[in-house]
Every structure is written in C-alpha cells, then in structure tokens.
Amino acid sequence: GFTLPYPLGEITAAPAFYLAIAVLFSRKVSFWSTAIGSAIGESVNIFVFGEAPSIWALTFVPGIVLARAPEVLIIHRFRDKARRILAYGMVLATIYETVVFFLIDWPVYSFTAFYCIQPGCSSSGLVQGFWFASFDFATLIDIAWIPVALILIVAAQRAFRVQHFD
C-alpha cells in the first residue's frame, strides 16, 4: 500500500456507515456506537497507522466524538422523512460536524504549541490558528458519502424487511 498525503489520509468510509446507523437504529444505539466507534477509529488511526503525531490524540479523539456523536442525533430527527429531506438532514449534520471541528481546532491551534510547524515551537496566534483550522472545512467532503449511506439504508431495509431496527 501507500500513504496518502495529509489530509487525504484522514478520509475513510466511516461517514457512510454512521450516517446509515443514525437512520436504521435507535437514537441511543446510533449515538453510542458512533461515539465509541469514532474514538476507537481515530485512536487506531493515530497510534497504529501513525496518521498523526500521538500528541494530537488529546484533541482529535474527543473532537471527533463531540462532532460525530451529536451529528447522528441530527440525522435521527430526519429518519422518517422522505429520502430527499433525509439527505438534506445529512448535509445539515455534516455541516454541523465541520463547524464543530473548526471551533475546537481554531483555539487549540491558536493557543497551544502542540501543532506548530515552526522551529522552536510557540503558539500560533489567532490568525495562524484560524488558517490551520480552516483546513477542517475539507470535512465537507463527507457529503459525498450521503448517496452511499442512502444505498446502505435502502439495502438494509429491503434485506431485513424493516424500516428501523429499534
């Protein structure tokens, strides 16, 4: 295999699955499976595959949980709506996720030395922190997983002849 350059190495198929889980399962199952799965997945990504320095786990792991677990709650509210409305709900939830990542990362990148790239590491300041955090808006690429999630939802509903697994 080969390693993709940052941030492409961060792209996974996880959004397709947690978007589908949010529709197919109860609010509690959706929330906790996404929270736990995201924490484990991000930890493995950092500590096993080395996609980021270990120190980044201090914000990456809680950050992904704070962004994704509530994201499924947003989607869950749209699960009984028409497919088009459900898809819009998924877009809204992905925007929420992106904004949460940004709001966490901006102050962290601005006021800590963990993420600086200059020799002698010092905190970046608000403008440079804003610049670094702005790369979080690439998370909107997760919108591309919505059609895959909808296919997974329809396939599961047809295969098991159920609307939801609650």
Describe, in plain words, how this protein is organized in 3D.
The structure is a single chain. The protein is 64% helix and 0% strand. By secondary structure, the chain is mainly α. It has a single domain, classed as Arp2/3 complex 21 kDa subunit ARPC3 (Orthogonal Bundle). Helix 4 packs antiparallel against helix 5. The longest helix has 29 residues.
Shape: elongated
Distance between the termini: 39 Å
* Category by helix and strand content: mainly alpha
Number of strands: 0
- What is the number of helices? 6
Approximate helicity band: 55-70%
User: What is the rounded Rg?
Assistant: 17 Å
Q: Overall mean pLDDT score?
A: 90
The CATH architecture comes to Orthogonal Bundle
Oligomer: single chain
Protein traits:
mainly alpha, Arp2/3 complex 21 kDa subunit ARPC3, elongated, 166 residues
Summarize the structure.
The chain has 166 residues and is mainly alpha-helical. The protein contains six helices and no strands. The chain has a single domain, classed as Orthogonal Bundle (Arp2/3 complex 21 kDa subunit ARPC3), CATH 1.10.1760.
